[in-house]
Amino acid sequence: MAYASWMLLRRQPFFRIERSDWPMLLMLGIINIPMNQLMFVWGLRYTTPADASLAYALSPAFVLVITRVLGHEVLTRAKVYGIICALAGTCIVLLEKGLSFRSEHLMGNVIELCASMSWAFFTVFGRRMSIKLGAVYATGLSMLIGTIVYLPLYAALPVAHVPPSVLSADQWGGLLYLGVVTSGFGFGLWYYLLTKMEASKVAVFNNLQPVFTTVMSFVLMGIVPTPFFVVGGCVVLLGVFLTQRG
After folding, report:
1. I need a labelling partner for 108 at 20 to 30 A (CA). Which of 7, 47, 132, 227 fits?
2. pLDDT for res 27
3. CA distances from 8 to 3, 26, 140 (A)
4. pLDDT (mean) for 187-205
5. Element (H, E) at 225
6. Alpha-helical runs (H) found in the chain
7. Which phi-psi region, left, alpha or beta, contains residue 239 (left: φ > 0; alpha: ψ -120 to 50)?
8. The pLDDT of residue 189 is above 60
9. Is the dihedral of CA 47, 37, 217, 209 positive or negative?
10. Is 80 exceeded by the pLDDT of residue 2?
């Protein structure tokens, strides 16, 4: 709704979009909500948050492979070493957060890997649209199209028949944060960065998420970081630095 209101205020209606761009925008919408966001939440039911974080830490590697196959980027040693280094650092940070490869988590891990791969495609293919149409407009279109495509699927899910009154204030707050900060501000900022940097250089910042989570836990909750975090965080930062140098 926020993005739709913004597009109306800016007077950027759909008919100004070139016909050749619609297939790409439709694909981005499908990848964005029905695939990426639904699979991420669905996968969390069958695995641990740490395993899900590791799956998303692999998205820079997926991005690098996709861009290399499509010829969008030059594959350099610095990028490869940087992404490997960032992934290794993420693993170190997550080892004490419940990272697990037990068989009962296999289904959830596979779903999260698919979600991570879909995010990689959303990043790679969305870059051209964000450069052509503008980051906020491209994000708004993908959100709006994805929501329209997702509505029939949502109506068929059992959760669609749950009355909103059963949700607590904390749950509403969490939904508001996910909708406004994560999906609203976060996605728009992601596409803005894609207009300024190569996809692989943007994607590697995904690996900083567990590092920022630990830092926020210390600032807001007083949880003291462990040596695992200090070592892993430094390795992640080194990986991000190497990738940007590439």
Report:
1. 227
2. 92
3. 9, 20, 11
4. 85
5. none
6. 2-9, 22-30, 38-44, 49-57, 59-70, 77-94, 106-133, 135-156, 169-177, 187-194, 199-203, 209-221, 227-245
7. alpha
8. yes
9. positive
10. no
pTM recorded for the entire structure: 0.81
What's the one-letter identity of residue 244? Q
Q: For the purposes of burial, counting CB atoms within 10 Å of the CB of 235, is it exposed (0-12), middle (13-18) or buried (19 or more)?
A: buried
How far is the first Cα of the chain from the last one, in angstroms, to the nearest whole number? 38
Domain map of the chain by residue range? 20-155+169-245
Q: How far apart are CA 34 and CA 184, in angstroms?
A: 16
Q: Report how far residue 87's alpha carbon sits from residue 63's, in angstroms, rounded to the nearest whole number.
A: 13
Torsion over CA: 19, 68, 118, 33 (sign): negative
**Tell me: the pLDDT tens digits for 61-117?**
899 889 888 888 888 888 888 888 888 888 877 776 666 666 777 888 888 889 989
pLDDT at position 241 over 80: yes
Exposed / middle / buried, residue 107 (Cβ in 10 Å: 0-12, 13-18, 19+)? middle
Contacts of 167 (CB under 8 A, 6+ apart): 175
